[in-house]
Design brief:
Elements (H helix, E strand, L loop, with lengths): L6 E10 L2 E7 L6 E2 L2 E3 L6 H13 L4 E9 L10 E9 L10 E7 L10 H13 L11
Parallel strand pairs: 1-6
Antiparallel strand pairs: 1-2, 1-4, 2-3, 2-7, 5-6
Length: 140
């Protein structure tokens, strides 16, 4: 029997000025997304987050911490990806790069959001509302 493992990914909620940075994807699935991507072999999650943020937004980020890991096998229709989500901050104006068509700062979320990013951002905004102090409570 051959084993098949899920793929590790990172997503980064980048706090910038008065909003958060999102990218418009240049590749399917099309829509808006939290910047992120696959972890390379031999790379830490933290290094992957910094690299992906820079590649997709042109921003050098300061990681503030891990937010939560999302592992629902259906979160990405292409394959089973497990994403560790980080919260980071950055200054400057984002510029699309890599597989991003656009990179912008948002106060009101654009549509459509791809993958499970609407859920991730809903959890994030609830966490902010609770004063950033409580552990995130995920409902199955």
């Amino acid at each position: 029997m051959a084993f098949k493992n899920p793929f590790p990914t990172v997503d980064i909620i980048i706090e910038n000025m008065a909003g958060i940075v999102l990218i418009e994807r240049a590749n399917p699935p099309f829509g808006w997304a939290i910047p992120g991507g696959f972890v390379d072999y031999g790379e830490s999650l933290e290094d992957a987050a910094r690299r992906e943020a820079l590649e997709e937004t042109g921003l050098k980020i300061e990681l503030l911490g891990q937010f939560h890991t999302y592992s629902d096998p259906s979160r990405d229709a292409r394959q089973h990806n497990i994403s560790t989500v980080f919260i980071a901050k950055a200054d400057g104006i984002p510029k699309a790069g890599s597989d991003a068509k656009q990179a912008q700062v948002f106060i009101t979320l654009p549509q459509p959001l791809v993958f499970d990013h609407a859920k991730i951002l809903e959890d994030y905004f609830q966490w902010l509302k609770n004063g950033r102090s409580e552990r995130i409570q995920i409902k199955p």
